[in-house]
Amino acid sequence: MKVGLLLVFLLAFSCKQEVGKHIYSFPESSGLDHILTKNSLLVAIYPPFNPSPEQDQTTNSKLPPMPAGGEQILSIYNRILQERVGDQTLIIRSGLRGQDDAKEMAPFIFPDEADLNHLLTRDFEKNPIQKFIISNIQDAKKAQPLGMIQEIRTKKFRVGVINYISYFSLSDEFNKKNNRFLFDDPLKMFLEDWPSARKQNYDFIILALHIQHRCHFPAAREAIDFSHTITPFTVTCPKDDPLEKILKIIPPKGVDLIVINGMEREGRGQYMGIPIAQIPTHGKYVLPVVFSKDDNEKNQILLPYLKLCHRFFKGTGDCHVETDYPEIQAKRIDIIKDEHFAIEPALFLGKTIQP
């Protein structure tokens, strides 16, 4: 990877953030061109299945409604991504949200999609339509594990994916209905699974966790580069937090990415140099991560979340309604107002989103 081009991209992105434009949007493909090389892999973590779009809440009555997400729109973004990046893409779905999702999901299955299905709602015996990854649950009826470690092969790379689910992170209603499944402790299973995963010499290892925690994730919208020094965006956890217990036993460079599923909001950072990111339960965001490997040197870049916009504010080139930073939102409102609150079709990598 050419560091100069990467720095140009990161600087350009940060400048857009300062003026409040292009938040969680990638309207042009030039930034991606600078990052993806022949030795790169773009891993896209898709949100839980959500058939309907959602809208950000706002107290400004002049802002038009800006929907985001929904499976139809996700399919359009996916098609553009595949056309643009092709076999340098690995798609992972972070699961389903409810018991009824499986009935509606079939039309939106992507052939190359792996699934971290933390709710086990599909009949995986009769309909194994995706790579099913779950590593710490036993099928009591068959007395065998459901998934273990999943190897996913792309054109150039072998990726090992481990997915652990905490029994306590699932609803009481689900646990009562599904007494067929036996849960092994994620901490115990990682200690057992990691040595064998390491022996497989995967190019990259992704650890997914569905676990309730109280850790603080400091960054959501910065592009975080792990090529040189440890990023300052450190994830911090209270003492004896369930997530921290797992993070502490991971060897240095033991995994290349940690994904936390089932949380209410987005957030990213690092722990001992390992990239960590949360996937919100709503279906508005995709997490793009670029992995690179050259002469046995590996690098990861956590790109900003991609918001699945149906349309853009003309003034800002995105559909985001800012709630965390009022001062930024005030500047954005001025920019949007200057364009008479006009909206336009959303763009992704130079292509128009047409629902």
Could you give a short description of this structure?
Helix content is 23%, strand content 27%. It has 355 residues and is an alpha/beta fold.
Characterization of this structure:
The strands form six sheets. Strands 1, 4, 5, 6, 13, 17, 18 and 19 form an eight-stranded mixed sheet that branches. A six-stranded mixed sheet has the order 9-10-12-14-16-15, covered by helices on one side. It is α/β, with parallel strands linked by helices and 355 residues long. The chain has one domain: Metallo-dependent phosphatases (Purple Acid Phosphatase, chain A, domain 2), CATH 3.60.21. The protein has helices at residues 3-18, 30-35, 71-85, 101-105, 172-177, 186-199, 242-249, 326-338, and strands spanning 40-46, 54-55, 67-68, 89-93, 113-115, 131-132, 137-139, 144-145, 150-153, 158-165, 181-183, 204-210, 224-225, 257-263, 267-271, 274-280, 285-294, 297-302, 306-307, 311-313, 343-345, 347-348, 351-352. The chain is built from eight helices and 23 strands.
Label this structure with key terms.
6-stranded mixed sheet, alpha/beta, 355 residues, 8 helices, 8-stranded mixed sheet, Purple Acid Phosphatase, chain A, domain 2
